[in-house]
Design a protein that fits this description.
This protein is mostly helical. The chain folds into two domains: about 120 residues, no CATH class; about 80 residues, no CATH class. About 70% of the residues lie in helices and about 0% in strands. The chain is built from nine helices and no strands. Helix 4 crosses helix 6 and helix 8 runs antiparallel to helix 9.
Length: about 270
Amino acid sequence: MLIDLKPQLIPLDINGLQQFASAQNTRLIKLTQLIATADAKIEKARQAAAPPPKGVSGAERQIIQTITDRQVNSEILAIRREADGAIVGVLVAMRNAASAAKAMGERHWDMWSVLRRAKTGNGGVVGILEAMQLRSAYAEILAAAGPTELAAWGQQAIDTADAILADSVLRENGARKQDERPFMSSALITNLKNADFVQAQVFLNQVIDLSQQAGLAYSEFQRQDSAAFKRIQLGLKRRQSIAGVDESGAILASDAEEGTPELGRL
């Protein structure tokens, strides 16, 4: 069976993911501002509409009101079309970012991928060369291990949260015939704690969630539901305080690593 390889998707490190999520937050802020501005113009147009003058008959009042309503609706439509010119571009960018986040979660930040490129084990190994040497040493030991011993190594990887050991155990377990495997690899993956994996999921899910909020905000704008839009604005302000971003969407100094102008790459 041939496996279809996909076009390049440049991997991001944790710092890059944080900036990726912050950029998505900035887009949502821009979108809510565009919608708020359009809503204000629409409300102004409605308020500016003069009521029918006094002293006219009921039929004349109806005619005047109909004409006024048509004029207001035409002005509102023009406002909405102007706003759409800017809003749609932001929405497309947010949806593209959400699609990229989903792909990163599947291709770069699933637990298997995190372990595969891990360079730090429980012993504090740092650097690709040292990590490769440690994997090689583990491979020799684990290849000679019986089922019970291999399972013990797997449990040790879980208890110590050792990413390199876990990767080595998974490789050995996967290389054995199915009926010779002492445990299911998915059990090790499920029970293993990895800080990078957890943090990455937070940022990736935020990008996806913000895109969904943007779609909802635009939908409510189209339906002219100002109350729902205000709830979205309130939720955005709360998210800013939690995520550590200011009103422009920039990461606050306490949450960012200074001197990193570009998205970090793995």
